Amino acid sequence: MKHLHFLPLALVVFASAAFGQHGTAENGYYPSEYQGDTWTGVVVSASEQTGEITLSYTKGGKSQTFVGVPEAGYLVHEHSGSTRPVKMSDTPVGKIIKVWYMEETKKVGGSKVKVNAIFLIDAVANAKAGQTYFKAFR
Q1: Around Cβ 86, how many Cβ atoms within 10 Å?
Q2: Successive 10-residue mean pLDDT values, the chain, 138 residues
Q3: What is the DSSP string of 61-105?
Q4: For the structural domain made of 22-121, what CATH number should be given?
Q5: How far apart, in Å, are the Cα atoms of 76 and each of 30, 43, 96, 123, 133?
Q6: Which of 72, 71, 74, 70 lies closest to 128, judged by CA?
Q7: How far apart are CA 135 and CA 92, in angstroms?
Q8: In this predicted structure, what is the pLDDT of residue 128?
Q9: Long-range contacts of 28-33 (CB under 8 A, 24+ apart)
Q10: Rg, Å, the chain Cα set
Q11: Is 70 exposed, middle or buried (0-12, 13-18, 19+ CB in 10 A)?
Q12: pLDDT value at position 125?
């Protein structure tokens, strides 16, 4: 009975290790359907053809991979003050980034596919007009 008070702590440690770099968003204003999912990792690839960003996290010889697509209309602020659509080159291979995403179901070729729709990338914040969220970056 004395050792039962360590059980909740052990479960939290085990659960956080099982998810690797999957995390939960900090406080902020996000889309109402957002469940708080984030992922941090090294950019392995960013494909202009498919629009996919692939992140990887390796620890202790085990790797986890995340594949996501920036949401339609994702815009980036230029230093000049103008905005432009995000390019895959904005997330260079080898850079560690954090993304905020929502899992969506889309029809591709007649079948339903789950897609990780990225609505925030810490390296290139989304400047899309009319956003319903706010996140301050350091």
Answers
A1: 23
A2: 41 36 74 86 94 94 94 89 92 94 88 93 80 50
A3: TEEEEEEEEEPTT-EEE-TTS-EEE--GGGS-TT-EEEEEEEEEE
A4: 2.40.50
A5: 18, 18, 18, 10, 15
A6: 74
A7: 22
A8: 79
A9: 28/133, 28/134, 28/135, 28/136, 29/132, 29/133, 29/134, 29/135, 30/100, 30/132, 30/133, 30/135, 31/102, 31/119, 31/132, 31/133, 32/132, 33/102
A10: 17
A11: buried
A12: 83
Residue 27 CA from chain centroid, whole number: 16
Provide the residue type at 122 as one letter: D
Q: 């697509």: which residue's tokens? A: 69
Note whether 79 and 72 are within 8 A (CB).
Answer: no
Domain map (residue ranges) of the chain: 22-121
Query: What residues pair up with 24 in beta bridges, in sequence order?
Result: 37
Pairing of strands 111-121, 62-70: parallel
Question: Pick from 116, 58, 122: which is nearest to 90 by CA?
Answer: 122
Contacts of 79 (CB under 8 A, 6+ apart): none
